[in-house]
Amino acid sequence: MPNYVYAGAAPWIAASKGAVTGGLFRLDSDSGRWEKLTAGLPDEVEARCIALGPGGAVYVGTQDGPYRSTDAGASWRKLALPGKEALVWSILLDPTDPRTIYVGTQGTTMYRSRDGGESWTELTPPEPLGMVKMSFPCRVIRLALDPSDPRRLYAGLEVGGVLMSRDAGDSWRGCNEGLLEFTKEPRLRSRIVSDTETEGMMDSHALEVSPAEPGTVFLANRMGLFRSGDGGMRWHEIGIARFSPLTYARDVKVSRHDPRTMYAALSVAAVSDEGSLYRSRDLGETWQRFDRGIAMKSTLMIIAESPRNRNRVYCATRKGQVFGTEDGGESWREYRLPDGVEGVYGLAAA
């Protein structure tokens, strides 16, 4: 499979005047050129998440449901969900069984396929304690599996905290009691568009579980980075402010090559003019700035590590800057998305 990088964009409320807010793009990192992907995708595609599958397969979540490509993105086929078309925010492939796929959509609705996306079961967990009514619908922003037990599934809700299932999504329980406890501290209260100061702690952005510590889930949200060692019952603040002046956490990733290595996307706020990429080599105990010699001019949204090459790491900002290293962080290169594209949500590096 070529060394492609995929980036997806979708509308966002604070886009620059005249900006393009949508599209799916493929970068040939050898040539440094972007190509817009359209064949088989919806018109004016909104691409909010991207996942790589075995055999060169690529999955993208759109406003018209999930799509799959088996030719590195040259063409796409829709994987029809039951009922009305769903706006997809997250896609997860079970690493122990790639024919099992999970999709998170608007609201708290999720879908599971056991046959590679040919048929789907709708998963409808109840709203958890602490769900916040915002000016936009709740969405399942991220899904994560515990590598030690692939039936243990976590869902991050924006803005509704965390849900956990012990049976691959058939039943669910909320994991918000411990997160809500943090809002007793004034510094961890945040209200922007709702009527409650618990909004910030419920504003989940990303979830990860490392095989180095089964049962431990890491959460990135508006207020920083948090971890739970007991499947979401109790939570502890990682304390990213000890290492970074930026604490708004949009993404957290565990390396596929070293389960004790993690990456975090840190910024000022959802709408900002600064971002940073940090790395931990001790499972979140300490963190160091990872990006070098580049200038992020908006919120850092997402991180993508190549599953084939541990030295190949990419990240993307809200306003269309994509940065990549091919040598483990020693040097970086910027690949600006074409045509003034903004609203980046999805990123994947082959």
Protein model, in words:
- There is one protein chain.
- With 350 residues, the protein is mainly beta.
- It has two helices and 28 strands.
- It has helices at residues 177-181, 199-202, and strands spanning 4-9, 23-28, 33-36, 49-52, 58-62, 65-69, 77-78, 88-93, 101-105, 110-113, 121-123, 139-146, 149-158, 161-165, 173-174, 204-209, 217-221, 224-228, 236-237, 248-254, 262-267, 275-280, 288-289, 300-305, 313-317, 322-325, 333-334, 344-349.
- The strands form seven sheets. The chain has a four-stranded antiparallel beta sheet with strand order 3-2-1-28, with no helix packed on it. The chain has a four-stranded antiparallel beta sheet with strand order 4-5-6-7, with no helix packed on it. Strands 8-9-10-11 form a four-stranded antiparallel beta sheet, with no helix packed on it.
- A hairpin with a 4-residue loop joins strand 2 and strand 3.
- The longest helix has 5 residues, at 177-181.
- The mean pLDDT is 96.
Concise account of the structure shown:
The chain is mainly β and 350 residues long. It is built from 2 helices and 28 strands.
Describe how the helices and strands are arranged:
Blueprint lengths: L3 E6 L13 E6 L4 E4 L12 E4 L5 E5 L2 E5 L7 E2 L9 E6 L7 E5 L4 E4 L7 E3 L15 E8 L2 E10 L2 E5 L7 E2 L2 H5 L17 H4 L1 E6 L7 E5 L2 E5 L7 E2 L10 E7 L7 E6 L7 E6 L7 E2 L10 E6 L7 E5 L4 E4 L7 E2 L9 E6 L1
Antiparallel strand pairs: 1-2, 1-28, 2-3, 4-5, 5-6, 6-7, 8-9, 9-10, 10-11, 12-13, 13-14, 14-15, 16-17, 17-18, 18-19, 20-21, 21-22, 22-23, 24-25, 25-26, 26-27
